[in-house]
Structure formats: structure tokens, C-alpha cells
From TrEMBL:
This is Capsular biosynthesis protein. One of its GO terms (cellular component) is cell outer membrane. It comes from Pseudomonas kribbensis. Keywords: Cell outer membrane, Ion transport, Lipoprotein, Membrane, Palmitate, Polysaccharide transport, Porin, Signal, Sugar transport, Transmembrane, Transmembrane beta strand, Transport. It is found in: Cell outer membrane. InterPro entries: Poly_export, Poly_export_N, SLBB_dom, Wza_C. The keyword Ion transport applies. Belongs to the BexD/CtrA/VexA family. Residues 1-17 form the signal peptide. Residues 71-155 form the Polysaccharide export protein N-terminal domain. It is a multi-pass membrane protein.
């Protein structure tokens, strides 16, 4: 009787275990295959060479707006710039404070109204002019006092034209534009990119109230146009952080976790490799899924892409399948894994049932002997 009771309880637990197997797993029962029904909310799509080819055909090569590729203009002097004006053979004009003084002491500040003061000719309009234009003007006006003056103009300190770099960089703040054009790549290089936390694909350039999205990832492409984007005074560069762009890797992998998206693209092989690959003892190689949601599930179905990764050739497809931010990569357990987990939960329960049955038997024998 006791044995029958124990077997009955074990059978009941086993039946419940079959109905509610422990652990997380993805069942594709009831999910619509690609192209089967437009009313389904979830669509299961096998990752095949044809799918890879179709995705590549729809991808557009990222290009830089034409207006950002203009040849950088010649530097124009501005307010707060400090100039060093040399008049050859006339040290009293070149270095009025004395040649023994530091060169900055003999600099000429461009005032807030755009002018500077110079001996003999007094007020000179400097702001808005190129260095050559200012030099020619000073030569022409000095010629009334000096025979054939030879004038040279150099900028000691660039202060009028600046760009601001912020975001995921080591040295955020302003950078001055000089007579050497400053490119986007050089500005970010000077600021120092925080490679662990930066979203390289989300760079934003703000110019004259308009925001231009740029992708630093394109620098890896041959003949990248981003190399030819030069900054202007007043430009703002913002390199966002990647904390809002993640891929969630779950299931039977060696190191399940959320991965930050550092670049514009990441393929499925990169994702699986970053978490140590599939668990060799528990994973079902044919149950590798990429789950991709949609903003409006009532209008279009969410998509689940399935890779049958038991074959080594499937990893070639994984290398060319691009995942997107907020995708969930899930690897399901093998059937034997689910069964082992079921047994591991049944054994403690069976022990409890056995203990209870033994206690019931002992109590029954005790009461019979007492009669």
C-alpha cells in the first residue's frame, strides 16, 4: 500500500513536470512561418542565404551630406585673436615693448569691435579679413610714412573661432580653429574617444541650428567621406553614450548578459562569441533565435529569426546576419537538458514523498501493535 502511494505521487509529479518543465525555453508552436498569415503577431523567419542576400540589397551605403564636404575656407581673423605684426627693418613697430620681451608682450589684440590699434595708421579693421588682406591693408597705409614697407602678419593666439566637443570623450570642451583646417576626425582625436562607452554610430554635428547625424564606423570603409568633413566656428560635436543601445543574450550560452552596442552594426557571430559561445553540454544548436520587436504590434508582427547552428556552415550565415539594438538573442536548451532539469527537481520531491510514506507505514505498524 505504501509503495503504491509513493508510485502514485511520483507519477503525479512526473506528469506535472511534463506539463510545466523547469527552466526557460522558447516554443515555436503557434508561431506563424514567414509569409503564412498577416494576422499573426509573431513571425518566424529562418536565417538562410536568401534572407542575407535580401537584407544586403535593402541596405543603403551611408553618405555624408554634400554641404559638409565643401573645401574649408581660408581662415579669417576674429575678435579676441592676438596678432603679431612684423615690419621688416623697423623693430620699433614690430616689437615696441622691446625685443627682449616675450613675443606675447608685443602681440596686437583684436578688440570686441573687430579693430586693432597700430602706430601711424591708428585704427585698423581686422575681424572678418584673411591674413593676406590685413597684411596688404597695413602695407598700403604705412607706405604714406615708410618707403616700401614689408609687412608680415601671424596669429599668436586663436580665440575667435571655436568648436565644442561633448559626450563620451575624455576631454570635453572647446577647441580653437586655426589656419590649419580642423576636421571632425582630428577634433575627436584631440578630445579622446571613450571607446568603452561611446556610440560610434551616433555622432551628431550641429551647425547653424541644423543637426547632422554622422557614423564614425564608416571610417573603416575605403574612401570614407567622413575624412573630408571640416569644422567651422560655432560647430558642436556630440558623441552619445551607448547605454541605451544593448543586445540581450539569454538562454544556453556560457555568459548570458546584456552587450553594449559600440558600433553601427554587430553580427550574430560577434554576439555569440562575446558571451563565450553556446553551452556545449546544454544548448540546442537548432534553437538559436534573434527576437526583434516592433513599435506597434497591432500593425506589424514581431519577428523571430531562427538559426540552425548545429552545422558549422551555419556560422557563416551568422557572420553575415546583423543584429540590431534591443534585439534579444536566445539559445534554447536541448531536450535532454530539459529532462535532466526535470529529474533534478523531481528527486527532492520524491524523497519527501518517500519519507512521508515511510512515516505513514511506521505509524500504521505502531497502531496495529498497540491493539
Amino acid at each position: 500500500m505504501t509503495r503504491s502511494f509513493s508510485l502514485l505521487m511520483l507519477a503525479s509529479l512526473a506528469l506535472q513536470g511534463c506539463m510545466f518543465s523547469p527552466g526557460q525555453h522558447l516554443s515555436t508552436f503557434g508561431i506563424t512561418r514567414q509569409g503564412a498569415s498577416e494576422s499573426s503577431r509573431v513571425e518566424l523567419i529562418p536565417i538562410t542565404p536568401k534572407l542575407i542576400s535580401m537584407n544586403r540589397a535593402t541596405q543603403k551605403r551611408e553618405s555624408v551630406p554634400t554641404e559638409l564636404l565643401a573645401t574649408p575656407a581660408e581662415y579669417r581673423i576674429g575678435n579676441n585673436d592676438v596678432l603679431y605684426i612684423t615690419v621688416w627693418d623697423h623693430p620699433e613697430l614690430t616689437a615696441p615693448s622691446g625685443a627682449q620681451q616675450q613675443i606675447d608682450a608685443n602681440g596686437r589684440l583684436v578688440r570686441s569691435d573687430g579693430t586693432l590699434y597700430y602706430p601711424y595708421i591708428k585704427e585698423v579693421q581686422a575681424a572678418g579679413r584673411t591674413i593676406q588682406q590685413l597684411r596688404d591693408d597695413i602695407e598700403q597705409r604705412l607706405s604714406a610714412f615708410i618707403a616700401e614697407p614689408q609687412v608680415d602678419v601671424a596669429v599668436l593666439r586663436f580665440a575667435s573661432q571655436k568648436v565644442v566637443v561633448t559626450g563620451a570623450v575624455a576631454k570635453a570642451g572647446p577647441q580653437a580653429i586655426s589656419t590649419n583646417p580642423l576636421s571632425v576626425v582630428e577634433a575627436l582625436g584631440s578630445a579622446g574617444i571613450d571607446t568603452n562607452n561611446a556610440d560610434l554610430s551616433g555622432l551628431l554635428l550641429t551647425r547653424n541650428g541644423r543637426v547632422y547625424p554622422l557614423n564614425l564606423d564608416t571610417l573603416n570603409q575605403q574612401d570614407s567621406e567622413l575624412q573630408n568633413v571640416y569644422l567651422q566656428g560655432g560647430d558642436k560635436l556630440y558623441l552619445p553614450y551607448n547605454d541605451n543601445k544593448r543586445i540581450y543574450v539569454m538562454g544556453e550560452v556560457n555568459q548570458p548578459r546584456a552587450l553594449s552596442f559600440k558600433t553601427a552594426t554587430m553580427n550574430l557571430s560577434d554576439v555569440l562569441g562575446s558571451v563565450g559561445g553556446l553551452s556545449q553540454t546544454t544548448a540546442n544548436g537548432n534553437a538559436v533565435y534573434v527576437i526583434r520587436g516592433v513599435e506597434n504590434l497591432d500593425v506589424e508582427p514581431a519577428k523571430i529569426y531562427q538559426l540552425e547552428a548545429e552545422s558549422p556552415t551555419a556560422m557563416v550565415l551568422a557572420t553575415h546576419f546583423e543584429v540590431r539594438p534591443q534585439d534579444v538573442v536566445y539559445v534554447g536548451p536541448a531536450n535532454v537538458t530539459r529532462w535532466n532539469r526535470l529529474i533534478s527537481q523531481l528527486v527532492p520531491s520524491a524523497s519527501i514523498v518517500g519519507t512521508g510514506a515511510s512515516a505513514a507505514k511506521n505509524w500504521s505498524e505502531f497502531t496495529n501493535n498497540s491493539k
